[in-house]
Amino acid sequence: MENSATDGSGCAGTRQTLGTRMQKTRLSLTRHARELTAEHGFSGFTVEELCARVGISRRTFFNYFPTKLDAVFGHADDGLPAGALERFMEARPAGTTGISPTLLGDLVTLVLEQLSVDDAEIRGAHGFFGILHKEPELLERMMKIGPERQAEFTAMVAKREGVAQDHSGIALLLHTLQFAGIRAIERYLESPEGPTLAEEFLHVMSQARELFAQDLHHDTEHTA
Amino acid sequence: MENSATDGSGCAGTRQTLGTRMQKTRLSLTRHARELTAEHGFSGFTVEELCARVGISRRTFFNYFPTKLDAVFGHADDGLPAGALERFMEARPAGTTGISPTLLGDLVTLVLEQLSVDDAEIRGAHGFFGILHKEPELLERMMKIGPERQAEFTAMVAKREGVAQDHSGIALLLHTLQFAGIRAIERYLESPEGPTLAEEFLHVMSQARELFAQDLHHDTEHTA
């Protein structure tokens, strides 16, 4: 599983050879599966109905996803624009030992790329995660898939940095960036006339960063 | 609901008059309800069986919790040692405008108090949250109660600081502290011979804090 995220730096693995048209179809399946879930509930539509919306056959569906549940959660690679992860993995400054001094900036760039998809996509995904807790089957899968993907991504970043794959600082940072992203989307959707999604995200991150710059202890000057 | 957290600064509200013995009984109900859930599953025991373990009557049970589900999640006030929240609320330095320069330190102190309960309590709570996702009824309640308690606590901290009750920086900081606490508990339980739980927590926080000190952008020097 970890492979799906880490083998992306140029080698012609099977995942990388997935054509643009196939990737569009896969993404379209997930979008429509989420729409149908919002409209009818997860058990309120069939794979056939989903296929009809996307314009593919039931047989073709199984080239993309093993089950309807997998389609609605989407493929791990579809959460980011093409090449974003590869660019992140290659952005570590040459000659660095230990954590890159640009790690936070590189991760912020990655999140900004993730947030740069069109508004319909943002709304669709946000709406889906908003109703997910109402459906036990979806919630159960989420509780499994969420931590798995987070652990995979932590391991990938840790690999880039050459530190232990469950490095707590990195795990915490990624968790915080994810929360900041969700928060930014909420703020953005609440006032569409206000700042852009990227501005909202940077605002939330700046606020948190200022708070983190405070002392951890009252009685000491230097705690880092 | 917000009241349960904010009216604690000395006034003799009904919550504060709960005697020490009653608080012990309430806590004991939650501990045993979690133990029984771990042993038999949530639907594998009755309120009567729970009461028998704690040594109270079924009638008395309802003075503490309206349902078995409420007992297993516990009372919001029982997550912290007595007085900890009041001390936090009163710790804001007099004469401060805007966010206190000691906010992070005050919150770290609060988490350290929260983590200072005995090992059995830590293991019990951690074990419960670890099995929770296996029981749809528990998971559903958790998805409701988790964000509610988080929003309440954010509002309380924001009130202390005199900022908007959904202040993003504070929400993010609290979320991160919670994640750091869970992470510290995991590390601590994995190697009981290693550092103390407090040391693990401070270690995780220090690592994250170093990462947050990096620049948000590559192209600017000052981003905060």
From TrEMBL, chains A, B:
One of its GO terms (molecular function) is DNA-binding transcription factor activity. It comes from the Bacteria. Residues 23-83 form the HTH tetR-type domain. InterPro entries: Homeodomain-like_sf, HTH-type_TetR-like_transc_reg, HTH_TetR. Keywords: DNA-binding, Transcription, Transcription regulation. Coiled coil: none annotated. Residues 46-65 bind DNA. Pfam families: TetR_N (PF00440). This is Mycofactocin system transcriptional regulator. It comes from Paeniglutamicibacter gangotriensis Lz1y. The lineage of its organism: Bacteria, Bacillati, Actinomycetota, Actinomycetes, Micrococcales.
